[in-house]
Specification:
Elements: H1 4-22, E1 24-26, E2 31-33, E3 41-45, E4 49-56, H2 67-90, H3 96-122, E5 133-146, E6 149-156, H4 158-194
Antiparallel strand pairs: 1-2, 3-4, 4-5, 5-6
Length: about 200
């Protein structure tokens, strides 16, 4: 289960980057990071790629289902993380790419879960389980205003990147495992045909 170090690394990098963007003050450590203000944009590659500080009160792509769903989203995230951890344990003898994909998804899920569960308390704006996820990587392809929303601009964080990468690797591992099973089946069939006589 050494791949859990990957999950831990994702969580740490994700949280440190969020504290750096949002800012944090811890008096007993004499730590005071001012961070950015909401909506502040730092251009990296023209208008295409920016560091833009936003807070996501809902789930993926900023979908906000309201306060009554915040606890349900957190409980679902905790349950999903538990299931991922269990599946990772069950897959401990499987291929490295499968275990790595699960570790990346787990690290990203926990990274965003920490925001939802604790950030409201840490920053003093909401009770437990009502925090907002900090996003800051901003890719801007185009601006399309529809349904009172702007589409074509995506803001995400390290945890989101980890989950996305993990899902892609997971799909790749399934495809690779599918090919291995097909090769094993072909080998078994060839063996039966050759030894039939």
């Amino acid at each position: 289960m050494k791949v859990l170090f990957v999950s831990l690394a994702v969580i740490l990098i994700d949280q440190i980057s969020k504290f750096y963007v949002k800012g944090i003050s811890i008096s007993f450590l004499n730590l005071n990071l001012n961070g950015m203000y909401i909506g502040q944009r730092i251009p990296i590659i023209g208008d295409f790629f920016n560091i833009t500080f936003v807070e996501n009160p809902g789930i993926a792509f900023g979908i906000d289902l309201g306060n009554s769903f915040k606890i349900l989203i957190s409980i679902f995230s905790i349950a999903a993380s538990g299931l991922l951890l269990f599946y990772l344990y069950k897959s401990r003898k499987k291929t490295l790419i499968l275990r790595l994909s699960l570790a990346l998804i787990l690290g990203g899920a926990i990274g965003n879960l920490l925001d939802r569960v604790f950030y409201g308390i840490i920053y003093g704006y909401a009770p437990l389980f009502h925090g907002k996820v900090v996003d800051f990587f901003n890719l801007r392809f185009f601006d399309l205003f529809m349904f009172n929303r702007i589409f074509g601009s995506y803001v995400f964080n390290i945890a989101d990147i980890s989950v996305t990468t993990g899902v892609i690797l997971f799909l790749f591992s399934l495809n690779k495992n599918g090919l291995n099973e097909k090769e094993e089946l072909d080998t078994a069939q060839n063996f039966l045909v050759e030894n039939k006589e």
